[in-house]
Amino acid sequence: MWIADSWKDYEVLDTSEGEKLERWGSYLLIRPDPQVIWQTEKTLSGWKKPNAHYHRSSKGGGSWEFISLPESWQISWRDLTFNLKPFAFKHTGIFPEQAANWDWFRGLIRNAERSVKVLNLFAYTGGATCAALKEGAEVTHVDASKGMVTWAHENAASSGLAEAPVRWLVDDCMKFVQREIRRGNRYDAIIMDPPSYGRGPKGEIWKIEETVYPLITLSAQLLSDKPLFFLINSYTTGLQSGVLTYMLSSALKDHHPVSVESGEIGLPVSSNGLVLPCGCSGRASWL
What we know:
By secondary structure, the protein is an alpha/beta fold. The protein has helices at residues 99-112, 127-134, 146-158, 173-183, 208-220, 241-251, and strands at 2-3, 10-16, 19-24, 27-32, 52-56, 62-66, 73-77, 80-84, 117-121, 138-143, 166-170, 189-192, 197-199, 205-207, 229-234, 259-268, 275-285. The strands form four sheets. Strands 1-16-17-15-12-9-10-11 form an eight-stranded mixed beta sheet, sandwiched between helices. It has a five-stranded mixed beta sheet with strand order 2-3-4-5-6, with no helix packed on it. A two-stranded antiparallel ribbon has the order 7-8. α5 (208-220) runs parallel beside α6 (241-251).
């Protein structure tokens, strides 16, 4: 398991009965987590006095209960600063477990000692984009949501990257990749964080089980003659880490020598020293 243990402004304090108690900067949040199927005694005071609590509904979805939480606030990771706010379905704008991947590819970019062009698909609020930009990479950031792209732009500005070489694009990722192939554009690294289900800016349907492998194979055509890495993340229950290995190995078979590995990503739990699983990632690299 790859563990995101480099945070100072974030931690999972405790877990029990389908929920996790988290510290985001100076604020305590309780949010649901489907992995937490165990029951332990909730002895930490934060369980009784959180700043906000997201309650799941028996009919699906849920809603926030705000006790003493601002509309937005900031936390830092290493040399990056992220803007947070509670919004749809329990999210805050950052998936902190992804810091394990940010550390990984930042090292690759830094050690490449050359200019690196990165394509970030389903790029959300730009955590990976900012991490790559900090190492001097040139990034193309693509997401179907205009609001998420605006949020990512704000994160870049807060991290001192307002003038960094990045293209902010609101687009359907599959169609964008197809157009980039026709244009003859190439990238040294590709990051993708596809949702289980979603819609593009013009109503395009995305179902990960049907679409992710074709997207990986298409994206592989965008790799340069000297590729650096290919990263894919999955929070979909049916796509285990071994599936990511097989997909990457198959799609990148013409790009040898490539090293492919996959595994769970997780967050340490302060109260008991365990690690909370948070999805999985597939990593391909050329060294």
